[in-house]
């Protein structure tokens, strides 16, 4: 087999399909799965539903084709129908649709006034339960009409509630309402008579730990509270007599505790359980509760015996790791096989059929084939000791032609959380949304992704090891990993950089101001000042848990762990990236560090993204974020000049006098200017063209010529200026040719400006 040589582009990384969920049919014969890819024109990620058989040669086929996408596939209990959520042309909100497996058009089932968020089939298949945010009330409409828009903090919430949709008559019935709680997750009882659900008192993330469990009698709407505040994730036993749930930990850094509720007596008790990690339950079978949990650099599936607390690992310990989440999986009716989404160091995310009895598995898709010729290094576990002797592990990615006798640039990519983990993944979400790590590995860099103290996968004590030690302890874990690699003789210590998002952005900001060991830093959505964070964030308990104080109780601990405290020591060139609608780590954190570095004469670049929350949600955002990071580290680590900043290109299709005016407009707007030539593509605006009556070569050939010219121009968008199409119909042909050319270089935006009085004296 030939050695892969293709180095993927940022565009190719983003365009690789992402699998979101795998739902196995009740009889286990088919798996419906959700596959997402970018729509560059609409600047969105669009999911469609695919189907693959579990027996014979897998041949996936696409089931849905709607422009806005379809998601959340769920099988009817008899396996005859597949229901899903979609928003089609005539829909004002996302609705539930049903597709017969034998064929035909999808049928809309719901008439929700706001987007359907999630739904579940009733066990008898005669109804569905779903959640949706309450629509705007008449009182709210009148308030806005009278006073305009305003919002009262801790009062103006939008509540999510349960509805039932009966299929014979397609009638919708509200099951819960009011402002007592907002529904987050729910389950039908095996007999279909009740629904257990988790609900915090309101949508404020700061009140999440007050989530309670309730049980609703569907026929009578009788509601009973099953737990006090602090419980979530309900799961019925197969016989419906018990409810499995998780007790929310007192502090963010502690694992949740699994519990059992006897629904006859109401007795609530803890399951004897000393696992030391958060768990994600999938289903309660006769053989036990199936759940996923982090184990070092993998995420495995396990079986828990609720009575004894005995735990058995189901998925195998592969050398390349195993990464699959319970929330993306499902189990067939007989409890034997599960459908999962799995990836690891040697394969991209694939639909996998897992035998829950013996752990055997096989891939049913082959998305990895799309990257078969890509030069991708495999991450492997790497261990070292931190400054205080704490054992630390992470993943290390080496260049494909790694030579231990050579020294390489080192880039440290730091995960968020802190309750998260870097995993053995061939292409993680980081690689395809924020940081083009594969491009740097192909360029000859080592990539270290440390699981610093507080990370998941290493037990409860390790998760709590950063309490009152944020930043300082994290930095020790990172720099000790850097020093260990330097001691190996593998690292050019003059070429070390660091990057990260969220908590990883915070640690990167800490490195920026605290350390002189790094040549460049990129901080995405990071915390520069814990005081600033505390008063602005939507999760106020975070610092109260990790720093064990409010700023008013102990300002010293907030200062000690804040990057801004060390701003006068700062000397590392820093790129800051932040969403303008980020409520988790609000924007003032970015401005504070930016101004501080600016005052210290440290090279700094701040990029903010209108409409973006705590991370990129749109493909163009990801493309810009990744390109900026690529340019930043190429400049400061590899001493490469960054590309000239992209700017618009004005294309004229008119007379000499009109072109002279367009040149003036372009100069005023800092744009490039070109004249459209029917034979030569885009030429200098003062070129003398004899015949502009039409395109003399094929549109495809001319578009290819223009595409090459656009690459050299490095423009941000194309703007065609011409007379109105009705006055000059050939302008429509020119516009089409420009669209073809733009598509060849990744979907460059093309705009047509029709100018009425253009070039007149």
**Count of DSSP H/I helices:** 15
Text of the CATH class of the domain at 380-636: Alpha Beta
> What structural category do the secondary elements indicate?
alpha+beta
Percent range of helical residues: 10-25%
CATH architecture of the domain at 380-636: 3-Layer(aba) Sandwich
Summarize the structure in words:
- Helices cover 20% and strands 31% of the residues.
- The chain has 761 residues and is α+β, with helices and mostly antiparallel strands.
- Among the domains are: 8-109 and 325-374, no CATH class; 380-636, Alpha/Beta hydrolase fold, catalytic domain (Rossmann fold), CATH 3.40.50.1820; 647-754, Rossmann fold (3-Layer(aba) Sandwich).
- It has an 8-stranded mixed beta sheet with strand order 29-30-32-31-33-34-35-36, with helices on both faces. The protein has a 5-stranded mixed beta sheet with strand order 39-38-37-40-41, with helices on both faces.
- The protein is globular.
- The model has no long low-confidence stretch (mean pLDDT 94).
Highlighted features:
Rossmann fold, eight-stranded mixed sheet, globular, 41 strands, five-stranded mixed sheet, 761 residues, 20% helix, alpha+beta
In short:
The protein is 20% helix and 31% strand. With 761 residues, it is α+β, with helices and mostly antiparallel strands.
Compile the SSE list and pairings.
Blueprint: H1 10-15, E1 18-24, E2 30-39, E3 44-53, E4 61-62, E5 70-75, E6 81-86, E7 95-100, E8 107-108, E9 116-121, E10 127-133, H2 138-147, E11 160-166, E12 171-174, E13 185-188, E14 194-199, E15 212-217, E16 223-225, E17 231-236, E18 242-247, E19 257-262, E20 268-270, E21 280-285, E22 288-295, E23 298-304, E24 311-313, E25 330-331, E26 337-342, E27 350-355, E28 361-363, E29 380-385, E30 391-397, E31 408-414, H3 429-433, H4 437-442, E32 446-451, H5 460-463, H6 472-487, E33 491-501, H7 503-514, E34 520-524, H8 530-536, H9 541-546, H10 555-560, E35 574-579, H11 588-599, E36 604-609, H12 619-636, E37 647-652, H13 656-668, E38 672-677, E39 681-683, H14 699-713, E40 715-722, H15 730-744, E41 749-754
Parallel strand pairs: 31-32, 31-33, 33-34, 34-35, 35-36, 37-38, 37-40, 40-41
Antiparallel strand pairs: 1-2, 2-3, 3-4, 5-6, 6-7, 7-8, 9-10, 10-11, 11-12, 13-14, 14-15, 15-16, 17-18, 18-19, 19-20, 21-22, 22-23, 23-24, 25-26, 26-27, 27-28, 29-30, 30-32, 38-39
